[in-house]
Amino acid sequence: MAHAVRALWPGGRALTWRLGGRPALGLPAQSRAGLTGAAGGPGPAATTRKGCPRLLGAAALALGGALGLYHTARWHLRAQNLRADLSAAQLSLSSRLQLTLYQYKTCPFCSKVRAFLDFHALPYQVVEVNPVRRAEIKFSSYRKVPILLAQEGDSLQQLNDSSVIISALKTYLVSGQPLEDIITYYPPMKAVNDQGKEVTEFCNKYWLMLDEKEAQWMYGGKEARTEEMKWRQWADDWLVHLISPNVYRTPTEALASFDYIVKEGNFGTLEGAMAKYMGAAAMYLISKRLKSRHHLQDDVREDLYEAANKWVAAVGKDRPFMGGQKPNLADLAVYGVLRVMEGLEAFDDLMRHTHIQPWYLRVEKAIAEAPQ
């Protein structure tokens, strides 16, 4: 509202000066004579006519300012009421969901989902899947993680793919539509990738299924919505693919990474020992192929640094998050991907050699302060 006042008043001063200081328009001699008093000064009629434009201009300015302030205040009040109503609805809806996340803790896609769930204070149980046997997800024909089981009353839904999980749950929280209806908006589709392998893709996975009022509340404008979708996809299509080449860059880093994976994962004693050493050796070699496949630089750290600084530049200096005053889905996705490197040499290098640390710590704090 303060911005509206400042916008109105300067224009008002300029208008008043023009009306008050503008010289009288030239009139024919007879007209001027008819408006002149006996002493040669302006008569009562002239004074009245000169005063009318001033009074009308001032009155119009005051009325316009009052109407502008009124409509601004009304718009803000309606927006606040809508936010309050939707926030209350989100709390009610989230309490009706029972969520179980099947994951690998060190998987960047699973980390994205946890960042979303934690930020939105959605309670969930975690099932750590054994990466060798994967017995924990034998119920599913979809064999990758994350998988989310969502119980809503008598309805049990399985959500696959990290971006589908996030989009579907956010749509549910904002719109209140039944989750079983929402997941039909993200149908799976079989495709063949560049390596000739059949993969499952999901339609619309970066899109929230909202009506116009809900989308306005969420984004404020189309540009913000498009920006969020663009950078969510960037996190999946590019940033994720920089993780393995960087954490397995050298034999030493590969061994340290698998030591971390074994400690955090669900491995048996023998499986853990084999995974630590054989997995480290295998992933060191695989990371070289990934480097070639994604056309990375000789020093893959440079690609990681460039990606981080590109993200920081996109967020900009005038807002703490891409979402403005709070993280949006793109903030949470990028944070979730990078978080899996914490404690590793690649993460420490990233914090030292780029400008991403202040943003990263702000997202970390926002998630930690989410109401539990």
From TrEMBL:
<dbReference type="GO" id="GO:0005739">
    <property type="term" value="C:mitochondrion"/>
</dbReference>
<keyword id="KW-0963">Cytoplasm</keyword>
<dbReference type="Pfam" id="PF13417">
    <property type="entry name" value="GST_N_3"/>
</dbReference>
<dbReference type="GO" id="GO:0001516">
    <property type="term" value="P:prostaglandin biosynthetic process"/>
</dbReference>
<keyword id="KW-0472">Membrane</keyword>
<keyword id="KW-0644">Prostaglandin metabolism</keyword>
<dbReference type="InterPro" id="IPR034334">
    <property type="entry name" value="PGES2"/>
</dbReference>
<keyword id="KW-0643">Prostaglandin biosynthesis</keyword>
<comment type="similarity">
    <text>Belongs to the GST superfamily.</text>
</comment>
<keyword id="KW-1133">Transmembrane helix</keyword>
<keyword id="KW-0812">Transmembrane</keyword>
<dbReference type="InterPro" id="IPR034335">
    <property type="entry name" value="PGES2_C"/>
</dbReference>
<dbReference type="GO" id="GO:0012505">
    <property type="term" value="C:endomembrane system"/>
</dbReference>
<protein>
    <recommendedName>
        <fullName>Prostaglandin E synthase 2</fullName>
        <ecNumber>5.3.99.3</ecNumber>
    </recommendedName>
</protein>
<dbReference type="InterPro" id="IPR036282">
    <property type="entry name" value="Glutathione-S-Trfase_C_sf"/>
</dbReference>
<keyword id="KW-0275">Fatty acid biosynthesis</keyword>
<dbReference type="InterPro" id="IPR040079">
    <property type="entry name" value="Glutathione_S-Trfase"/>
</dbReference>
<feature type="domain" description="GST N-terminal">
    <location>
        <begin position="101"/>
        <end position="169"/>
    </location>
</feature>
<keyword id="KW-0443">Lipid metabolism</keyword>
<keyword id="KW-0444">Lipid biosynthesis</keyword>
<comment type="pathway">
    <text>Lipid metabolism; prostaglandin biosynthesis.</text>
</comment>
<dbReference type="InterPro" id="IPR036249">
    <property type="entry name" value="Thioredoxin-like_sf"/>
</dbReference>
<dbReference type="InterPro" id="IPR004045">
    <property type="entry name" value="Glutathione_S-Trfase_N"/>
</dbReference>
<dbReference type="GO" id="GO:0050220">
    <property type="term" value="F:prostaglandin-E synthase activity"/>
</dbReference>
<keyword id="KW-0413">Isomerase</keyword>
<keyword id="KW-0276">Fatty acid metabolism</keyword>
